[in-house]
Design brief:
The complex is a heterotetramer of chains A (265), B (435), C (275) and D (358). Chain B is α+β, with helices and mostly antiparallel strands and 435 residues long. Helix content of chain B is 45%, strand content 16%. Helix content of chain D is 33%, strand content 23%. Chain D contains twelve helices and 16 strands. In chain D, helix 7 packs antiparallel against helix 10 and helix 8 packs across helix 10. The chains are: A alpha/beta (265), B alpha+beta (435), C alpha/beta (275), D alpha+beta (358). Chains in contact: A-B, A-C, A-D, C-D. The interface between A and D is large, with 46 and 45 residues.
C-alpha cells in the first residue's frame, strides 16, 4: 500500500515584503516539479493570474509583514478558510527588515520618504502571529528550503511539520567552523538566532546578523551584555538587536537594554 | 445616421491586482467610445516599507544587508549599489578582483532574473495559461530548460555569495570569503552546459506574436567606453557613465542634474522623469539598444538570427533583449569565471564622513543609491531610485499609446491582455519601486 | 543485538475506546514470537514520522506474536496510526523497559491507581493479577477520568466491578450521563481513605498524568504506605528505547531502560519531575 | 591482550603513517585555513599534522559518533510492507594524535553505546573500523583540568586505544600498543623495544605536566554536594545572566551523547531517510513531552548539564561525564565555567576556601 496523496490546495498571500520568499517558492531549486505536481495553486498572484482568495486552502503561506489595515482584514478571512497557515520568511515571522521603522516615530518616518503623506496608510510593522494563530514558522530571509521541504512533505504525509528550532551555533559546530565570536571577537548573533541557514555567515567569515530572527526563548539580554563587555557601543548593540525580529520579545529585551524600542506616534 | 461618440460611454479596463509581476499593483485604463484615451493609471499599491526612512541611523556596514531586502529578485543589484555608494562616500576604491567578482555576481543575477521573468511571467501570456505551473505538464522541454539554466546561474551566486538571494559574502571593499579556482572553473562548466538552452530560449522568444508599438520615450543606460588597450568597453552593469538615446552623457554623480522624481497621489511609488520632461525607458532593451556594440560577437550573431535590429523601439521586444542578455550574460560569466583566479584579500574600511552615489544596471534597469554618512559611519540621509520608478512614466505613456492604437479594434479581453503583456514586458518590480 | 532493530507489524483489529483513543491489535509480520511483561513498551513508528513510545495494554500471548496498544491520537505517529486500515503495517522496536514489579505482589495487597489513559499500562498487570489471583491478597483498582466518555476499557470496567476478586472505585470529574458503571464524582485522591488494604504490606502501582501521580503517591506515603512499595510509570520523551539518546533521563535514570516503572523514592529525589 | 612498548623515531613513525594511508583514511590534528585553530580533519600528507595542539573545538569523537548521520533508509513497498536498509559499512580510518582527555571521552562513549545487549549499531561500526592512536600532551592549556577529573595528562586505563604515544623529544616516541591490531601493524617497523629508562622519562614528563595546570577542581565531595544543591541560586543566576541556550557547551563536549532522530521523506512519500543528529539538553524542546516540558526553564537545563557531567553520571556509568578538556567553557560565548559553578556551591557548603579558587 502506498500512502494515498491528495493534492494540497495552496494559497500564497503577499503583504509588505520583497517577495523574495514567493520567488524562492516558485523556484524551489530541484523540487519545483514535485512541488507543482503536488499542489493545486488556488491563489498565488506572483505565479498565476486569476485565482480565488475564498479558499478553502489546505496550506496558506503568508509572505510579508503586516503594515496596513486591509492586510489584517484579509489575513483574518484567510485564516478561517485555511487548514494550515504558515508565515514564510522573516517579514511574516517576526517583522523582518520592515520592522526597523518601528523604532522611529511613524510620522517622522513617513516624512522622510514622502512630501505628501496623505496617501500613506501605514501602521507599525507586525508579524503575522500578532493577528492570527499560526501553525508553525518557516523562518529565514529568504525562507529556509529545509523547512519548506519539511512543510510540504509533512502535509502530504498528513503530519505536523517539525521545523528547525535550535541556534545557529549548532550548525557551526556541525560544520566545524571557527567560532567568530570567540576567536575573532566579532559580535555574532548566532547564539540567539534560529538556525536553519547552515550557519551561513560564519561559514563565510562574518558574524551572523540574525536574519532568521530569534530562536524561541533566546536569552538576548545576556548576549547584549556580552557584546558590551567585548567593547561594542550601546547604539551598535541596539542596532544588532533591532535589525531583525525586534517585534519579538526575545530580541526586544536585548535591544531595550541599550535604547528605546517604543516610539510615540 | 452617424452616431456621435459619447465621451461618457467609455470602455474601462480595470485590473485589481496584476498577477505574475513582483509586488502589488493594479491598472485602470479608460477609453472613450471614439477611441480617445481618457485615463491611464498604473496603481502601485505595494505598501511602502520606508527603506529611505529607516536607513537613517543605521551603520554603513548594515546598509547592504538591509537594502538587499528591497527586492527578492535583484538583491545583488541593491547590495552592490549600496556597497559602491558607501565606498564612494568614504573614498574607497575596491580592488580590480573585487570589482570583477561583483560584476560576475551581477551578471549571474541579471541572467537568473531574466530567465524567471521570461519563462514564468511572460510565456503563460502568449500560450494562454494562467501561470507556468499550469504550463509545466505540457511544456516539458521548457521546464527542463528553465530548471537547468536557473540552477547553473544560481550556483554562481550561491557558491560565491553564500546563497543566491541575499548573499552574505559581499561587504564594503571586498568579499569575506573567496571561492577557489576549482570552484570557479566548475561553475564555468555548469554554465557552458546550459548555453545552448539560452540560444534556444532566444529563438523561442523571437517566435512569439508581439503586438506592434513604438515607445516615444528615450532609452537610458550605463555605458563604459573602452580604455587603454581594450578593444571595446565592457557591457556595463556596475560602472560607467549615464547615456541616453537623447544624447545624454553624464557622470553618475550628476544624476540629479538630468533626472527628477515626482510623487503620485494614486501610487506609492515615485515617478522619474528627465528634467527635459521626457520619459525614458531603462532595462534590457535600453541596454541592448545603447550598447549593442559591446555585446559578445556570438550574441550579435544571435541577435541577427532572431531578427533583432536596433534601435528597436517596441517595448514588447524588451523580452527579446532579455533573451539576448541571458545568452550574453552566460558568455560573460564563463569568461569571468575562467579568468578570475581569486587571491585572498581582506576587506578593510577606514570610516570617513561623506556623500556617495552609485548607479548600477539592475535586471530591470537603472538603480541609484545615494547616502550621506557621518564620521562614525552612521547613515544620515538615504535616497534610492529603482528601475521601476524610472520606467513608471514610460510604462504609462506606452499604455496610452497601446490603448489608442488597439482600443477600438480589440475587444475588452484582448486589450486587457495586451495591457498586461505590455506591463510585464517591462518586467516591473513594484516591491522595488515602492521600497 | 544491534540497535536499532526494526520489525514490521500488521494491524489486525481496532477497538474504539473513546472519541480519540482506540486499542490496536497488531501481529508481527516475521511470524516471530513476542514476549513482554506488563508495563513494558514498544517504539511504534511509520516511515516519515519518527517513533513514539507506547505501553502494551494486553498480556503477551505466548507464540502468537500478537500485542495490543491503546493509543490516543494526539501526536504525529499516533494520528497516523489512527488512520491505518486493517492489514496496514507499522514499524516496531521493542519490548523495552522494566515493567511493574509483579514478583513483589506475591502475598501482598495490591492497589492500582490509574488516571485517564494511564489505565492502559496497568491493564495487563491487572489481567495478570486476576489470572494469578491466588498469589495475592486484596486487589483494589481506583480509576479516574474526566468524564465517562474519557473512560477506556469500559467492557473490562463493567466486568471488574461485578467481580468479587477485585474491588473497584471509578470516579469522574463531571458526571455527564448515566451508565452501567457505578461512578463517583471527584478526583482519585478523594477515594483513597479507608481502603481495605494493609499499608505496611501493599504494593501500590500508579499510572496517569504526572501531577496526579504526585498527589496519589504523596497521599499514600502520608497514610503510612511503604514508600519503596509505591511504583509509578513515567511518561517521558523516549526516542530510542535503548538508553542511548538521552531524552528520557531523569537524574541518573534512563526512563526507557531503568523504567518506565520506578519506585517512588527513586524518582522523588530527582529534580525536573512534578513529584 | 597483547601489550608491547617500543621506541619509534619520529621520521619512522610518519613514514609508517603514510603507509597506513593506503588502507586507512588518516584523520589527525590540522591547522585550519580560517582562524588558525586546530581541528581533527582528514590528512592528505603527514606534513599537515600539527602535533603541538592543546585544544580542538570538536573532539575526534565526531569521527566515531558523527554530529549527523543516517541510521537507515525505509522504502514503502507496493505490497504495503516496509523495506528497512541499515548502514552496512563505514570507511576504515585512523584517528591519530588523540589526547588523553579524548581517549577517556571515547571510553565514556563506549560505556554508553557499547553496553552489552544494547549496542548501538552505527557506533560499533565506526569504532570497529577505527584505529585509535593516542598522543600524550606536551603542554597544558589554561582551560585544562583533566588531572582533576582523573583523565590526564597521561592516559592510565589500559583499554580503548590501539597505540599510545608519548613524545620523548629527540629519542622519538614511546609507543605502547594494546591488542593484536596495532602490534601487527607495527611489526613492519622493526622498532626497538622500550626500556625502563624510557618509562622513567615518561614519568618525569608526567610529573612536570602536573605542575603546569592552572585550573583544578576538588572532586572528593562533588557528587553529593551537587545532588544536594539542586535549588542553589547559582543555577538561576548563571542561567539568567549568562546562559544563551545556544547549546555550544554540549555540542563541543566529547562525552555528550544525546541525539534526536529526524525522518525526511521524498515528495512521493515512498522513501524515508531516518537520520540522527546530536541533540542537546540545553535546547528548550529537549524535554518536551505531550503537554509538558520538564525542563522549560533555562536554569533547570543548565543544572541538568552540570549535575549530569559532574554527579549523576557517576551513578549511571561509574565515572565522571566530564573529562576536564575545558571545551565547554572555551566555546561558551559568555564563558560560563562549570567548575566555577561547582566551586561556588562547594563554597556555600563550606567545603572550599574562596582564596584557593583559581
Amino acid at each position: 500500500m502506498l500512502v494515498k496523496k491528495k493534492k494540497l490546495r495552496l494559497g500564497v498571500f503577499k503583504y509588505s515584503c520583497c517577495a523574495g520568499c514567493e520567488f524562492e517558492l516558485i523556484y524551489f531549486q530541484k523540487y519545483i516539479r514535485e512541488t507543482f505536481d503536488n499542489v493545486d495553486i488556488i491563489y498565488f498572484r506572483m505565479a498565476k493570474s486569476g485565482g480565488s482568495e475564498e479558499g478553502p486552502f489546505d496550506l496558506v503561506l503568508i509572505d510579508g509583514a503586516i503594515t496596513e489595515a486591509w492586510q489584517v482584514d484579509q489575513l483574518k478571512r484567510v485564516r478561517q478558510v485555511a487548514r494550515f497557515l504558515l508565515p514564510i520568511g522573516s517579514c511574516a515571522v517576526n517583522g523582518g527588515i520592515p520592522a526597523i521603522k518601528n523604532h522611529t516615530s511613524e510620522l517622522d518616518m513617513e516624512k522622510r520618504v514622502y512630501q505628501d503623506i496623505t496617501h500613506v496608510h501605514s501602521i507599525k510593522t507586525h508579524p503575522v502571529d500578532d493577528y492570527v494563530q499560526v501553525d508553525g514558522y518557516i523562518k529565514g530571509c529568504p525562507m529556509g528550503r529545509k523547512d519548506l521541504y519539511e512543510a510540504f512533505t509533512s502535509l502530504l504525509l498528513g503530519k505536523r511539520p517539525s521545523f528547525v528550532n535550535y541556534s545557529v551555533c549548532v550548525e557551526c559546530k556541525i560544520k566545524g567552523n571557527t567560532c567568530v565570536l570567540i576567536s575573532y571577537g566579532w559580535p555574532c548573533m548566532g547564539p540567539v538566532t534560529n538556525g536553519g541557514c547552515g550557519a551561513l555567515c560564519p561559514s563565510y567569515n562574518r558574524a551572523c546578523y540574525a536574519c532568521w530572527g530569534p530562536m524561541e526563548d533566546a536569552n538576548a539580554p545576556a548576549l547584549a551584555r556580552q557584546f558590551e563587555k567585548m567593547g561594542l557601543a550601546p547604539d551598535d548593540i541596539f542596532r544588532r538587536f533591532t535589525q531583525y525580529g525586534s517585534t519579538k520579545p526575545e530580541f526586544r529585551r536585548g535591544a531595550e537594554l541599550y535604547g528605546s524600542t517604543t516610539q510615540p506616534f | 445616421m452617424d452616431r456621435q461618440p459619447n465621451p461618457f460611454n467609455s470602455k474601462t479596463i480595470s485590473i485589481d491586482y496584476l498577477a505574475r509581476t513582483e509586488g502589488e499593483s493594479g491598472l485602470m485604463v479608460k477609453i472613450a467610445e471614439g477611441g480617445d484615451v481618457q485615463e491611464i493609471k498604473l496603481k502601485i499599491f505595494e505598501p511602502p516599507r520606508f527603506f529611505e526612512g529607516f536607513l537613517v541611523g543605521r551603520k554603513y556596514s548594515e546598509a547592504g544587508d538591509i537594502v538587499s531586502r528591497i527586492c527578492g529578485i535583484c538583491p545583488i543589484s541593491h547590495l552592490t549599489t549600496s556597497l559602491q555608494a558607501v565606498e564612494d562616500a568614504m573614498g574607497i576604491m575596491p580592488s580590480p578582483q573585487t570589482r570583477r567578482l561583483r560584476r560576475l555576481m551581477c551578471v549571474s543575477q541579471v541572467v537568473a532574473s531574466h530567465i524567471i521573468h521570461l519563462y514564468m511571467f511572460v510565456l503563460p501570456d502568449y500560450f494562454g495559461y494562467p501561470g507556468f505551473a499550469e504550463m509545466m505538464p505540457e511544456f516539458k522541454k521548457e521546464t527542463d530548460y528553465l530548471l537547468a539554466m536557473k540552477e547553473a546561474v544560481n550556483n554562481v551566486a550561491e557558491k560565491i555569495g553564500g546563497r543566491p538571494l541575499n548573499p552574505v559574502s559581499m561587504v564594503v571593499n571586498g568579499f569575506t570569503k573567496l571561492p577557489d579556482r576549482e570552484t570557479m572553473l566548475s561553475l564555468a562548466e555548469g554554465i557552458r552546459a546550459v548555453l545552448p538552452m539560452a540560444y534556444e530560449t532566444a529563438m523561442m522568444m523571437s517566435r512569439l506574436p508581439y503586438p506592434d508599438l513604438e515607445t516615444e520615450g528615450e532609452f537610458a543606460a550605463l555605458r563604459k567606453e573602452a580604455s587603454g588597450e581594450e578593444e571595446r568597453g565592457e557591457y556595463a552593469f556596475n560602472e560607467g557613465r549615464l547615456v541616453s538615446s537623447g544624447g545624454l552623457n553624464l557622470d553618475i554623480h550628476d544624476y540629479f542634474a538630468a533626472f527628477c522624481e515626482q510623487e503620485q497621489g494614486y501610487a506609492q511609488a515615485k515617478k522619474s522623469f528627465l528634467k527635459t520632461g521626457n520619459t525614458y525607458m531603462s532595462g534590457a532593451l535600453a541596454r541592448v539598444n545603447l550598447k549593442f556594440d559591446q555585446l559578445h560577437d556570438e550574441t550579435k550573431k544571435l541577435a541577427q538570427e532572431i531578427g533583432f535590429s536596433r534601435p528597436d523601439r517596441n517595448p514588447f521586444h524588451n523580452n527579446l533583449a532579455q533573451a539576448l542578455e541571458i545568452y550574453d550574460g552566460m558568455l560573460e560569466s564563463i569568461r569571468l569565471l575562467s579568468e578570475i583566479d581569486p587571491k585572498k584579500e581582506v576587506p578593510s574600511v577606514d570610516i570617513r564622513a561623506g556623500e556617495g552615489v552609485a548607479i548600477t544596471e539592475a535586471p530591470r534597469g537603472l538603480l541609484m543609491h545615494r547616502y550621506v554618512i557621518d564620521r562614525r559611519g552612521v547613515i544620515e540621509e538615504a535616497n534610492l531610485i529603482t528601475p521601476t520608478s524610472q520606467n513608471f512614466a514610460n510604462i504609462e505613456r506606452d499604455l496610452h499609446l497601446l490603448a489608442a492604437r488597439y482600443g477600438q479594434s480589440d475587444d475588452h479581453e484582448a486589450l486587457r491582455l495586451k495591457c498586461e503583456q505590455l506591463i510585464r514586458a517591462y518586467d516591473p518590480c513594484f516591491s522595488c519601486s515602492v521600497h | 543485538m544491534d540497535n536499532p532493530h526494526y520489525r514490521v507489524a500488521c494491524l489486525l483489529d481496532v477497538q474504539p475506546e473513546t472519541e480519540d483513543t482506540s486499542s490496536y491489535l497488531f501481529v508481527l509480520e516475521d511470524g516471530g514470537d513476542f514476549q513482554f511483561s506488563p508495563g513494558q513498551f514498544n517504539m511504534l513508528g511509520l516511515p516519515g514520522t519518527e517513533e513514539a513510545a507506547i505501553s502494551f495494554s494486553s498480556l503477551a500471548a505466548a507464540g502468537s506474536g500478537r500485542f495490543t496498544h491503546t493509543i490516543r491520537r494526539v501526536g504525529n505517529v499516533t494520528r497516523l496510526i489512527g488512520e491505518l486500515e486493517i492489514g496496514q503495517r507499522v514499524m516496531v522496536r521493542g519490548p523495552f523497559g522494566r515493567g511493574w514489579p509483579i514478583e513483589q505482589a506475591v502475598g501482598c495487597d495490591v492497589l492500582l491507581v490509574a488516571g485517564g489513559l494511564g489505565l492502559a499500562p496497568l491493564r495487563p498487570f491487572l489481567l495478570y493479577m486476576l489470572e494469578n489471583r491466588g498469589q495475592i491478597r486484596n486487589l483494589v483498582l481506583i480509576f479516574g477520568a474526566r468524564t465517562l466518555d474519557d473512560m477506556i476499557f469500559q467492557i473490562d470496567l463493567a466486568r471488574w466491578q461485578e467481580q468479587d476478586e477485585i474491588s473497584t472505585i471509578y470516579c469522574v470529574d463531571h458526571l455527564t450521563r448515566e451508565s452501567n458503571l457505578r461512578l463517583r464524582t471527584g478526583l482519585v485522591t478523594r477515594f483513597m481513605d479507608g481502603l481495605d488494604l494493609d499499608p505496611r504490606n501493599t504494593l501500590a502501582c500508579i499510572c496517569g498524568p504526572e501531577i496526579m501521580m504526585r498527589f496519589v503517591a504523596r497521599n499514600l506515603a502520608l497514610q503510612g504506605y511503604r514508600q519503596d512499595r509505591i511504583y509509578l510509570s513515567m511518561e517521558r520523551r523516549m526516542r530510542c528505547g535503548t538508553a542511548h539518546c538521552g531524552h528520557c533521563q531523569i537524574g541518573a535514570k534512563f526512563v526507557c531502560q531503568d523504567g518506565p516503572v520506578f519506585s517512588y523514592p527513586d524518582i522523588a529525589r530527582f529534580a525536573d519531575t512534578a513529584l | 591482550m597483547q601489550e608491547q612498548a617500543f621506541i619509534i623515531e619520529k621520521d619512522q613513525l610518519f613514514s609508517w603513517l603514510e603507509k597506513l594511508q593506503q588502507e586507512f583514511l588518516l584523520i589527525g590534528p590540522k591547522k585550519q585555513e580560517e582562524g588558525g585553530g586546530v581541528a581533527f580533519l582528514p590528512i592528505k600528507s603527514v606534513q599537515e599534522l600539527d602535533l603541538n595542539y592543546t585544544l580542538t573545538m570538536m573532539g575526534p569523537q565526531i569521527y566515531l559518533y558523527p554530529p549527523e548521520e543516517t541510521i537507515c533508509t525505509v522504502w514503502r513497498k507496493d505490497d504495503g510492507g516496509f523495506e528497512v536498509r541499515m548502514r552496512e559499512e563505514v570507511p576504515r580510518q585512523v584517528l591519530f594524535a588523540v589526547r588523553s582527555c579524548d581517549l577517556q571521552a571515547i571510553l565514556v562513549l563506549d560505556k554508553v553505546f557499547l553496553r552489552p545487549g544494547l549496542e548501538d549499531r552505527n557506533y560499533r561500526l565506526w569504532r570497529e573500523n577505527t584505529l585509535l592512536i593516542g598522543l600524550h600532551c606536551s603542554s597544558i592549556h589554561p582551560q585544562c583540568f583533566c588531572a582533576s577529573m582523573g583523565s590526564g595528562p597521561f592516559f592510565e586505563p589500559r583499554q580503548g586505544y590501539d597505540l599510545l604515544l608519548t613524545d620523548l623529544g629527540q629519542i622519538g616516541y614511546l609507543a605502547e600498543t594494546l591488542g593484536e591490531r596495532a602490534s601487527s601493524l607495527l611489526a613492519a617497523l622493526k622498532a626497538q623495544p622500550a626500556t625502563q629508562t624510557h618509562f622513567d622519562q615518561k614519568r618525569q614528563i608526567g610529573h612536570y605536566l602536573l605542575t603546569q595546570f592552572q585550573k583544578s577542581i576538588d572532586t572528593t565531595h562533588l557528587v553529593e554536594v551537587l545532588l544536594k544543591n539542586q535549588d542553589h541560586p547559582v543555577w538561576s543566576q548563571t542561567a539568567d545572566q549568562r546562559c544563551l541556550s545556544c547549546t555550544n557547551c554540549t555540542k563541543v563536549c566529547p562525552t555528550c551523547f544525546c541525539y534526536n532522530t529526524k525522518d525526511t521523506v521524498s515528495f512521493d512519500l515512498v522513501r524515508c531517510e531516518r537520520t540522527r543528529y546530536k541533540d542537546s539538553c540545553q535546547e528548550l524542546h529537549f524535554a518536551q513531552v505531550h503537554g509538558a516540558n520538564f525542563r522549560s526553564t533555562r536554569s533547570s537545563r543548565l543544572r541538568q548539564f552540570v549535575t549530569h557531567k559532574l554527579a549523576t553520571w557517576v551513578e549511571q556509568f561509574g565515572c565522571f561525564g566530564c573529562v576536564g578538556c575545558g571545551r565547554c567553557m572555551s566555546w561558551c560565548p559568555t564563558g560560563i565555567d562549570l567548575t566555577q559553578m561547582a566551586k561556588e556551591i562547594m563554597v556555600s557548603e563550606g567545603l572550599y576556601d574562596r582564596r584557593r579558587q583559581t
